[in-house]
Amino acid sequence: MAKPSTLLLLLLSIFIAGAATRAAAPASTKFIRDKCGATQYAALCVQSLSPYASKIKQSQRELAQTALNVSLASAQSAEAFVRKLRGVKGLGRREAEALQDCVDEMGDTVYQLSRSCHELQRAAGAPYEEFRWRISNVQTWLSAALTDDNTCTDGFSGRASNDNVKSSIGARMVNVVHCTSNALSLINQYASNH
Question: Taking every annotated instance into account, which residue ranges of this chain make up the domain Pectinesterase inhibitor (predicted)?
């Protein structure tokens, strides 16, 4: 059986550790709010990154990496959704072609975001010139992903016979575009402070 003083020390340690964790969470959340304030879609930025506050802490690199991961997850979800829509009965030729184009564009988006995630990881701790080169790659690939996303939705512009398909894809693509835009903004912040 543990001595009362040992038990007291153990309980005190647990209490202090819990208090430190609770104190760190508001600071991390404030950090996320502050950094997201400079993004174009600040509310989405805070909402999508706050669940990761304990991982992000107050690290700009971790914030940028997490934003990229969130954008990638959003793009993967949208790609899977668009793939499922191709099986919808009653689609016209134009919608079927637009869906196939969108699947291709989303595949490119997922690829660009995935390689951006890996490249950002490689940039951490790299010498200055290599860091700049890797960040430039990430910025270029994110810009390409944004173009792919917009190209996907362009295929449904104008007169589409299936407004449900158009609105379903549009809502998901808006989320991907906004998450990717936020990730790019946070990466730019990270790069400028490095």
Answer: 27-186
